[in-house]
Amino acid sequence: MISMDRRRALRTATGATVAATLTAGCAGAGPAEPAGPRDAGPPDAGVIGGDRGERVGEAGGDGGARASGGSPSPSPHPAPSPRRHPRHPDQITHGPRDRDRVALTFHGAGDPATARALLAEAERAGARVTVLAVGAWLDDHPELARRILDGGHDLGNHTQNHLTITEMTEADARAEITECATRLRRLTGSIGTWFRPSRTQYAPPSLVRLARLAGYPHVLSYDLDSLDATSPGATAVISTVTGRIQRGSVVSLHFGYADTVAALPAVLDDLHRRRLRAVTTTELLS
Predict the structure, then answer these.
(1) How far apart are the first and last CA of the chain?
(2) 250 near 276, Cβ under 8 Å?
(3) What is the pLDDT of residues 148-168, one digit of tens each?
(4) Pairing mode, if any, of strands 154-157 and 219-220?
(5) How many C-beta atoms surround the C-beta of residue 1 within 10 A?
(6) I need a surface site. Which of 41, 116, 211, 258 has the fewest CB within 10 A?
(7) How far apart are CA 263 and CA 222, in angstroms?
(8) 2-34: per-residue pLDDT in tens?
């Protein structure tokens, strides 16, 4: 049996090697998913609560365009669909503070090699994560939808094109949500378990309503931004996450960045030391 110290060393070395490879391969390419503007603070109280009588269903057909590029076969085992968590608000920023669980959530876009490396590292550590996928990214890499689900992770909707959704008309914003939902449903049999808006931490009440109409009873925000999308270096990502994480935290991270790959082994080691379990958002709230 490999000792804990040896296991940590192997994981750290693996993360560093993968990060170095990705950095060399992507030199000069620039970030795959630029960091969007952040809201100055939490939403108005009206965002939290809302009508809890909405039925959770599939994305409506009147809000989005058909998926392009053929008709990939859905999984023989449909993925989980969204469900309401009655004890939690319509817009979720964190889970219960009295349990030793956290959720690492990733914006799904960028170089698929980083996605595979991050998923593999999480699985080696026994961690499960939540991936909010951009629909255009799934168009280019449809096989990653099943890869995420087969690893035991949550898969959700991060809009079709990752534009600034809060600056769109209502019709365009709804289309961004439902078009990504269509991609997810075609690939997995489900619209995904979660919705996170693009380029904003908090959704205004109108966007919470549009998400509900598309079949998502909750909007998934976060209480800890790793700032990895600013490419601050792996050490800074580690410091930000480990310095601020607490029970119930929902952490925002990104695929597509070598810093994140290099930082993840140390982040997972820190969680292990604190006896915090990295679980899917569904498990965090259940």
Answers:
(1) 33
(2) no
(3) 999 999 999 999 999 999 999
(4) unpaired
(5) 5
(6) 41
(7) 19
(8) 344 444 444 444 444 444 444 443 333 334 444
